Input
Amino acid sequence: MSREYEADVPGGAALPGTLPDALRAELIAFRRDMHMHPELGNHEFRTTAALKARLEQAGLRPRVLDIGTGLICDIGIDGGEQDGEVDGGRGMLALRADIDALPIPDTKSDCAYRSTVPDRAHACGHDVHTTVVLGAGLVLAELHRQGLLPHPVRLIFQPAEEVLPGGAPDVIECGVLDGVGRIIGVHCDPKVDAGRIGLRHGPITSACDRLELSLDGAGGHTARPHLTTDLVTAAARVVTDVPSLVARRVDARSGLAVTWGRIESGHACNVIPQHAELSGTVRCLDLEAWRQAPDLVHEAIDEIANLYRAKTEINYIRGVPPVVNDPAVTELLHDAMTSRRGPYSVEDTEQSLGGEDFSWYLEHVPGAMARLGVRTPGERTTRDLHRGDFDADESAITVGVELFTAAALLDAIR
Output
């Protein structure tokens, strides 16, 4: 066994799968190239082609998904076997990455690898996620060639995570979970130092849906509001009253929150308009409350609108449920990380109000997501997600590869 693929585990055992220096440099270059060429959801053609070429170079057989972008690649299944035959029926471990970028400009003025595409940026760290799964796949493929991978692994490179309801449902329809028993993923966290991960049992993200609402009624002169549908007042009451009504109809611990981001109505100070539009988000910490949310929101809007005789047209767009980490898979990530980096490399993390379509996979198989630290230790300025100046400490790539590689090896003996 090559020593470059072996690491010492606390306690004296040996766990293969560390990252060779040459591969580490290659992965940083891959990430920078991807960062310079961001692609939006369902248009990740260049990214998909680059991943396919590198995996094929490693002797693997990646398959581009039927939806046109994204791909899957199995490691440890050499051909002819059925998934259940090769893994004894217990299911493969899947490693998932999201490959799309955001429609915002890259504002990093002093960065040599800043985006070359106007108004497009990898401002959420998907380039890091993708590189981590690619790197883990290359290490695991080498271990398989050496006869050191006891259990098959599937790589999933998913498009369109940033597009509601996320690309995951389409990817699942393509059959990527066939033969999968567990799934793991990471998300960059600029509040956690590189070299560490954040973990949480149970919900780690929030559900997030989109809400679009139209109000209509008879307009008229502001001198005679009693002869009209007082639409601006109706819209204002919807904005202020609906969130509190909805919140009062579920357990307060569910964190169900309606938040408006846009309201638009009228063109003149002395004219009551005939049309108003509102849009916002519905977020929820609890899975069961999220399932009730559409009915609760519809009822609350209609109650307020009826007071003003306003007609409503409600477009409630399902986004994503919360990511609910499975306890056993969370412990797998914990043990994998501590086997590589020691007991102080894992910290507790809070449930976020952000949404993540990794949650759709967990509707089908158990899994867990870790927060991958990308803040340079000692750095005082935090470059938050979804900002044009976001960047990651690239040592996090090595950490992520080691985490996934160790998880794949430990999963095989559990």
